[in-house]
């Protein structure tokens, strides 16, 4: 399966490259270019954490390993609290007692739960309109409710047993339950807390990048044990290569599925912008979130619930997994697709009675699969 996906990405590279040679008349060349534009933001968001991961694992390990050991849970699960491309994978693998559990936590859990906690919630609540914040919180809650579908599907594809998956995910499930209760009872305080947490992570990543860059330039070792910056940038470059093909292919997929999804949106009582949000979200969470203001109420909730699992599946997360752990690609796709498509009917059920009346005039053509990435 890995080779099939890599060949599909290679076809996307050819599609985007040829279109760019002729001036991008079909738009695929622009997507091809975005693969390189992605390198800078990716390096800023993850290089520092990759460099710091060995040090953090050694420091946190003194607390995490005994605490998780009391529950019989692999300490790798702690790494899943960070996004896959913000150090979650490296931290999980560094803490892991079982290498398979490190990959499961660092790829599957970090791409769903970690991404939601560190990225989707704080960034989303900073972008959405004030009147849409309750709908955003409702969508997050629904997405977290069905998140066990993602965790189980990804774990089974990894080769873990159902009992192992449930046992190892106890800290994640407890944390999710607390998050659900917090979003229900005190959404403003919870969002503020996660915004502060995300800002703290960003500061830590920046400090790691600064220290690693100084070490690379001068040879001065400020923090012993840090990974070289060149190794971190090699990971970023590998992701960028995948993005050269994944963005043109995602654009092609969007165009091919436009009419079927318009039909599906009509049947589900959502406007066409809401339907377009699904296609945009699997490429990047940010443009999908910015589109919420053009969606009807039902579409807003359903899209946010969908994003909890699906965010950045065909771009950043796919590129990272192909680069760092290609053998985990089937597990990543199984987790994200199962959770995303389980969230849709549940969200539709919770929003029964709302519809697309207010935004009926919006059309799919007004939307864009902008190349911003999570």
Task: Explain the overall architecture.
The protein is mainly alpha-helical. It has one domain (2-366). 76% of the residues lie in helices and 0% in strands. The chain has 17 helices and no strands. It has helices at residues 2-21, 28-37, 39-71, 84-95, 99-127, 133-145, 147-158, 162-168, 170-185, 187-218, 229-256, 258-268, 272-281, 285-290, 297-310, 316-324, 329-350. The model is unreliable at 357-374 (pLDDT under 50).
What is the total number of structural domains? 1
Largest sheet: none
The total count of strands amounts to: 0
Briefly note the structural class of the backbone.
mainly alpha
Q: Are there runs of 5+ residues with pLDDT below 50, and where?
A: 357-374
Inertia-based shape: globular
Question: Helix-strand pattern, N to C?
Answer: HHHHHHHHHHHHHHHHH
Instruction: Note the beta-strand portion.
Output: under 5%
The whole-number mean of residue pLDDT values reads: 86
Number of helices: 17
Task: Please give the share of residues in helix.
Answer: over 70%
Work out the radius of gyration. 20 Å
Protein name: Ethanolamine utilization protein EutH
Organism: Eisenbergiella massiliensis
Keywords: Membrane, Transmembrane, Transmembrane helix
Transmembrane segments: 6-23, 35-57, 63-84, 104-128, 140-163, 170-190, 196-223, 232-250, 270-289, 301-322, 328-350
């Amino acid at each position: 399966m890995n080779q099939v996906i890599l060949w599909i990405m290679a076809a996307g590279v050819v599609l985007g490259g040829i279109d760019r040679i002729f001036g991008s008349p079909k738009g695929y060349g622009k997507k091809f270019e975005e693969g390189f534009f992605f390198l800078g933001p990716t390096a800023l968001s993850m290089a520092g954490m990759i460099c710091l991961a060995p040090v953090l694992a050694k420091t946190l390990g003194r607390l995490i390993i005994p605490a998780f050991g009391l529950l019989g849970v692999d300490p790798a699960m702690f790494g899943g609290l960070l996004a896959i491309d913000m150090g979650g994978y490296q931290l999980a693998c560094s803490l892991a007692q079982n290498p398979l559990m490190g990959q499961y936590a660092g790829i599957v859990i970090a791409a769903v739960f970690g991404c939601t906690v560190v990225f989707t919630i704080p960034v989303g609540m900073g972008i959405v309109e004030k009147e849409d914040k309750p709908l955003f919180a409702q969508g997050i809650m629904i997405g977290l409710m069905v998140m066990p579908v993602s965790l189980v599907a990804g774990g089974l594809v990894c080769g873990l047993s159902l009992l192992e998956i449930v046992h190892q995910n106890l800290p994640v499930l407890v944390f999710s339950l607390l998050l659900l209760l917090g979003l229900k009872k005190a959404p403003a305080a919870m969002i503020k807390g996660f915004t502060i947490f995300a800002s703290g992570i960003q500061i830590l990543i920046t400090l790691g990048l600064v220290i690693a860059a100084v070490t690379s330039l001068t040879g001065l070792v400020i923090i012993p044990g840090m990974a070289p910056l060149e190794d971190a940038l090699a990971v970023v470059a590998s992701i960028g290569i995948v993005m050269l093909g994944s963005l043109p292919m995602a654009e092609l997929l969007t165009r091919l599925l436009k009419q079927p999804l318009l039909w599906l949106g009509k049947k589900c009582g959502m406007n066409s912008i809401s339907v377009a949000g699904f296609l945009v979200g699997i490429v990047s969470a940010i443009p999908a979130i910015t589109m919420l203001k053009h969606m009807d109420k039902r579409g807003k909730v359903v899209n946010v619930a969908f994003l909890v699992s699906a965010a950045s599946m065909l771009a950043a997360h796919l590129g990272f997994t192909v680069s760092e752990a290609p053998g985990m690609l089937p597990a990543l796709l199984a987790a994200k697709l199962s959770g995303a498509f389980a969230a849709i009917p549940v969200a539709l059920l919770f929003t029964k009675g709302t519809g697309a009346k207010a935004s009926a005039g919006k059309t799919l053509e007004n939307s864009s699969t902008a190349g911003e990435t999570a």
